[in-house]
What we know:
Layout: H1 6-61, H2 65-75, E1 81-88, E2 93-98, E3 105-116, E4 119-131, H3 133-181, H4 198-202, H5 206-248, E5 252-257, E6 261-265, H6 267-273, H7 278-282, H8 300-314, E7 316-324, E8 330-342, E9 345-354, H9 356-404, H10 409-417, H11 422-431, H12 434-457, E10 467-469, H13 471-484, H14 486-489, E11 498-502, E12 510-512, H15 514-534, E13 541-549, E14 554-561, H16 568-573, H17 591-602, E15 606-611, E16 617-624
Parallel strand pairs: 11-13
Antiparallel strand pairs: 1-2, 1-4, 3-4, 5-6, 5-9, 7-8, 8-9, 10-12, 13-14, 14-16, 15-16
Helix pairs in contact: 1-2, 1-3, 9-12, 13-15, 15-17
Amino acid sequence: MNNIPIGSKVLFLILLCGFFFAISEAGIHLYLDYKTEIRHIEEQILQVRDSDLKSITKSTWNLEADEVVLQLEGALKLRDIKYLHVKTETGEILAASGLPPGENSISRSFPLEYRHHGKTNLIGSLHIAASLEGVRERLFEKALIIVVSRLLIALLISGVFLIIFQRLVSRHLSKMARYTQNLDLNNLGSPLVLDRPAAAESSEDELEKVVQAINGMQVRIQEDITEIRQTKEILERSENKYRNLFESSMDAILVRDLENGYLDCNQAALKLFAIPSKEALFNLAPADLSPENQPDGLPSREKADLVIAEVLETGSTLFEWTHKRVNGEDFFASVLATRLELGGRTVLQETIRDISEYKQTQEMMVQSEKMMSVGGLAAGMAHEINNPLAGMLQNASLLSNRLSDLKMPANVRAAEKAGIAMENMKAYMERRNIPQLISAVNESGSRMADIVTNMLSFARISDAELSSHNLSDLLDKTLDLAGADFDLKKHFDFKKIEIEKDYDGQLPPVPCESAKIQQVLLNIFRNGAQAMQEANVPNPRFTIRTGLDKEKKSARLEIGDNGPGMNRKTRKRVFEPFFTTKPVGVGTGLGLSVSYFIITENHGGRMHVVSTLGKGTKFIIHLPLGGKSGGQDPG
């Protein structure tokens, strides 16, 4: 239908309307004629009743069957009467004429009543049947004549109309169509002029108005085309500039629709989130790039709704967020979210920068400042505790000697003067468990002395000379020490822990104090082993890696376990002096604090922890290859 000329369409519609009206008129005529025919049949049946009923009744009374047949045949001469018969009172057919019609018929019955000796007798009945087949034939012929005649009239009118329409309208419309199809922005051509008489051209009819509109449009297009081209060039330059800035930005940029998800991103975003392509990003939801909860404990979805509401209200906001790469790795990010209007809809542009190292450095600086403030306090406390502690240990040793040394002359003389035998004194002490009590005092005092020694390490920086050592050898020696550690063996066999090693064979010797570095490593192994034992980890494992950090000019050491991990609160305080998650009397909370000071103060290195609850813990140590004089890299 799209390529059919408009004149043909109009002709078709006229014919369709003519056919519709012809059918409607035929229907009305047929209905009225049908009613007339039915009424005429009823009149014929009544005519038979009125003219022949008495004579048929009399003949039936006299049982003159031949006479009845003659009377019935006379009634068959009527147009639509097809069958008549007379039944006696007993139901027998006395006489019949004609053939019974089919289903399309009208039938009537009339009683035959004969009056004899003043009494009315029912002697039978007359049955008359009229067929409707003739009615149908007559009505069909009439309908056919009406429809054909009306269609011929409609066709004649349509032909005349088509010629007039073609002359006055259609040919001009075709010329307008060809003119507009040939319009070119680079060559608009001459104005449109129709092939019409001068009188028609001067009139203000619809065709002339369309011509004027087309020519006016041509003029406006000609006037605006330069401006359009200039605007297009400006837009192209602006888009190219934005696209270059967008793609070359070192920060990750994501553009997303609040309802349909991500719309675009730059290469930095794909690299930051470890996404292989933009198509892969479009299949991700914002929730796929964030952990379930943020560090403050709020669900990421709930907190994101609050941020989006703020952006929609204020236009932009800067905030910190914990994101997640597609490989499951979390990282800290600084996010600038901006509301933009793009194509009539509101979208968000997120500029994201990885600040994981900044956050680690920030935590390390806070930790260093906290420990430096504790250092002076620890030194004062250690000196105050050291003097009475030395007196306590010395007196405990003298007490043990004077009560248990049977051969010391002074002990023997003092006992004799008191009238007591040293053997009896020893027996009494053993029965009262006094030697064990004295031993417990000495053991507690020794532990206190170790604590004081560790506290003093906060207040001074070692002046010991650094020697170059192979980091892999130090690790292996420390693992051997951990396997023979008595405290560890009291709970479980350290040798049952699986050790995965990934040593860098190209790593040069590292300037350090081997004993102190081993102390640090042993503390990490002890804490990890105890944590995995307490959590009943089925297959405990340490993963140890060494490598060279060329950018920071340092040796990098990683020690990770598959233990229970730490929550954020514990991770932030793990290097604080006296902070421990162990029961009272089990740990002092100084092991990792001293380790931190050994790395940062004694060796000028860096030490931090990466841990997630339920996903294990990893300690990362950087030791400068130039020794402590090389300085501590703040990154």
